[in-house]
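User: Predict the complex with adenosine-5'-diphosphate.
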Amino acid sequence: MGGAGMGDPRAVLLLSGKRKSGKDFVAAEIQKRLGSDVCTVLRLSGPLKERYAQEHGLDFQRLLDASAYKEQYRQDMIRWGEEKRRADPGFFCRTAVQGAAQPVWVVSDTRRLSDVEWFRDAYGDAVLTVRVTATEETRRRRSWVFVAGVDDAESECGLDQGVTFDWVITNDGDGAALGAQLEALLQDVRSRL
Ligand SMILES: Nc1ncnc2c1ncn2[C@@H]1O[C@H](COP(=O)(O)OP(=O)(O)O)[C@@H](O)[C@H]1O
Ligand SMILES: C[C@@](O)(CCOP(=O)(O)OP(=O)(O)O)CC(=O)O
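Assistant: Here is the predicted structure with adenosine-5'-diphosphate placed in the model:
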């Protein structure tokens, strides 16, 4: 950590937002617009699920799908992930960025202040915080259902306060409106390349 190094990214977009706000969708749109030689999408939940599956004898691949299998383990994965982060706040972040060589990184699932702080410490001004929002009505249309212990817990609400977002993307399903917002964000990103 510390000063800028050779292989450091020029822009690190930390996407956060509620379940079904469209973080993965927006991450994919950004990557599509920049090209995968310029932009890579990273997930903190990837290494989390991989380690969790290893330690608990579970099927890592099935934890990656939007499946009932994942939902069955979500609460315990949250608990386990919090325990790991308490011991070492960079535990999942370090693994997630390993091998990322593109100049632009999009982290599609930032959930906690400790994650934002880790990226700011490591990459300084390259970091841009991006909030993806959608109304509850939109999220319900995308099959979101409120789950106590998940939607009212740190996993979903950890960044509701404490971060001033550099960009807020409203994603309620109008393709043209989303495109215009993404182009404004991408102008900022491209100016950093
Ligand atoms: N602007 C959009 N246009 C069409 N479908 C969308 C849009 N945004 C999100 N979706 C769809 O809504 C669902 C939830 O989006 P996703 O990106 O997985 O949300 P999150 O990662 O925030 O939980 C997915 O099926 C996704 O394809
Ligand atoms: C334990 C988790 O990492 C599970 C995340 O799984 P996904 O990243 O698949 O999440 P959704 O898009 O919300 O379904 C949450 C956490 O608090 O770390």
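The chain has one domain: 11-190.
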